[in-house]
Specification:
With about 400 residues, the protein is an alpha+beta fold. The protein has 13 helices and 18 strands.
């Protein structure tokens, strides 16, 4: 959430940022109203508490009972006002940096740079579905019978390719100082809310287990981010960087009719995710480092891509800046998103109460970044489509061959 003092001091600036994100700026006025009410009730509660203490000294039982009842009512009012305030301030998104492209949707996104040239084929290009089915390594029909639409079986070399990609990601990230983690795939609703990933725009996309009141995570960062919840980290220990592998679950609400075939947009998928905690002055530099790691992984795999500066209306609510990478996918004849890098500054840390203790003894909230290292399914699509051969085989990227023990996936 935003710092309430920022909202009090700069309401017009906050409204401008909220509007750029595509949210109703009236929420800022509502927060200020609730803040004023909450602070007024807090003063009344403190006044009556002082009165209660004075009455107790006089041992006036009748007056003491009256004050007690008054205090009980005021404390209940304060509790409700505080809850209303917290719920409403959570509706205010993070404010985008000034250099973020302004626009209502992805049409305002800006291409920052490109790497690699899309390969020209001398045969009819196949998409990953046809390639995978011909090779017997992607089974969508059986998955549909067993689990329904938007599920798949990865078999044989596709399964080996998944674990080769996971190992490549971990090997690369460990060398960069990331600690490998296999985090929980379920999360409590209160913690999910603190991560700013269970808002009004997110709930329909989440899988909820009512009996246990738990949610399935939509990405490993959802349970990596709370690793230091309610902690104060000594400045000398930052940055802290984690690489997490997790199966992720999304309903894909709102995507009706989009990418219904294949493994691009599915309900269950695996990812290696990056999460980092830094001092505030280093968080922008940290995002730049993270994007450079993402590009390094794509270049190791030899996949052409473009780097995108995401617009205010297309970015996530907690983000101040979002950078995406889109891989060239010959089967679709266009670039598709495979990586996201989210800089949240202290927006999540403020909810999670994750702080840094400076060398002078002062404390402040840390800044947080999260980002995709490799989205396994989408990376497999890019590998199959970019490396397909005329005879139906697929050449394995050189960097993955030691993990796979072969240089080609061939029809049987």
């Amino acid at each position: 959430m935003l710092d309430i003092q920022l909202i009090r001091d700069n309401p017009d600036k906050v409204k401008d940022g909220v509007q750029k994100k595509g949210y109703d700026p009236k929420v800022v006025d509502r927060v200020l109203e609730l803040d004023k009410k909450r602070r007024g009730l807090l003063q009344e509660v403190e006044k009556v508490r002082q009165e209660r203490n004075e009455v107790a000294k006089k041992k006036d039982v009748k007056l003491g009972q009256q004050v007690k009842e008054e205090l009980k009512k005021l404390e209940a009012d304060l509790s409700k006002a505080t809850k209303d305030f917290e719920q409403t301030i959570y509706d205010i998104p993070n404010l985008p940096f000034d250099d973020v492209p302004v626009g209502k949707d992805e049409s305002a996104n800006k291409v920052l740079r490109k790497w690699g040239k899309p390969k020209k084929f001398d045969f009819k290009v196949r998409d990953h579905i046809e390639i995978g089915e011909r090779l017997g390594i992607i089974d969508l029909k059986t998955a549909a019978k067993v689990s329904g639409t938007r599920f798949s079986y990865l078999k044989g070399d596709a399964a080996l390719l998944e674990f080769a990609l996971v190992k490549l990601a971990f090997d690369t990230l460990v060398k960069k100082g990331f600690t490998p983690v296999v985090p929980p795939t379920m999360i409590r609703p209160d913690v999910f809310t603190k991560m700013a990933r269970l808002g009004k725009n997110d709930k329909d996309d989440r899988y909820h287990l009512p009996k246990d009141d738990l949610y399935l995570v939509g990405s490993a960062e959802h349970t990596l981010g709370p690793l230091h919840m309610d902690e104060t980290i000594p400045e000398g220990k930052l940055p802290i960087r984690y690489a997490g592998f997790s199966t992720s679950f999304r309903r894909e609400a709102g995507s009706y009719g989009k990418d219904t075939k294949g493994i691009l947009r599915v309900h269950q998928f695996d990812k290696v995710e990056m999460e980092s905690f830094t001092v505030p002055e280093d968080s922008t530099k940290e995002q730049e480092l993270i994007v450079s790691i993402q590009e390094d992984l794509m270049q190791q795999l030899g996949i052409p891509y473009q780097v995108i500066d995401i617009s205010t209306g297309d970015m996530g609510a907690p983000n101040v800046k979002q950078i995406d990478i889109e891989a060239w996918m010959p089967g679709q004849g266009k670039y598709r998103e495979t990586h996201t890098s989210d800089l949240m500054t202290d927006y999540q840390a403020r909810r999670l109460n994750t702080r840094v203790r400076r060398k002078d003894g002062s404390t402040e909230f840390v800044h947080m970044n999260d980002a995709t290292a490799l989205a396994i399914g989408r990376t497999i699509i890019a590998i199959l489509e970019n490396n397909q051969q005329k005879d139906g085989s697929v050449v394995i990227p050189e960097v993955l061959r030691p993990y796979m023990g072969k240089d080609k996936i061939s029809p049987k």
